[in-house]
Amino acid sequence: APATSTVDQEKAEEYLKQFYSDPNAPSISGRRVKVQDFETILKKMQEFFGLEVTGKLDTNTIEVMKKPRCGVSDVSN
Amino acid sequence: FRHFNGKPKWDKKTITYRITEYTPDLSQREVDGTIAQAFKLYSDVTLLDFQQIYGGTADIMILFKARNHGDFYPFDGQGGVLAHAMSPGPNDGGDAHFDEDEKWTLSSAGVNLLLVAAHEFGHALGLDHSQDPSALMYPTYKYVNTQGYQLPLDDKQGIQALYGARKS
Q: Which residues of chain A approach chain B closer than 8 Å at the C-beta?
């Protein structure tokens, strides 16, 4: 079975678009994020939060994404 | 701690703020008091002073509103994004917006206004998100006891790096 659902994947993409998009980051415009870009940006997010940097959408990463938070991007711009 | 790119900051010592739309979750007096308490966390440790005004344009304009609220960052309903603020600057710079779809409280129930307001005012003064989980400027919300609350060391060092330290 897949580790994450399609819903998790789409929500994660939205999260990364909102909080980890900056002019120097790989393009994440458009409806879907390219797999290689997704992994790269997800690693940045995992590194920021001190999670294991896997580039994979694991349970711990999803838990952090679900926490209530500030709307300001984690990537200064 | 981290600062925004270019280290934007206020070039004056007295910063004004105005609350233009209140939350019905708390009395106006409670909101005024809590917002003043959040600013005091910063004036206690820096040379900054904060003054509430009741008309005109303040440096930091504050509102509680749900969904679309006049900027390009609409809120998302209860949970998720709780609030956001702009870095220091003219016009919208420094403004802080709170999602009215949250349940704002002064306790551990719902979302504690003091903790979120203090975080957002950190942005309004020039602090970016910190990677230190014990810092107020950590991006995710976590309730801590607000009785006698003071700025965590990471945030204190970050704000003093911008505005200097107030000698107690």
A: 19, 48-50, 64, 67-72, 74, 76-77
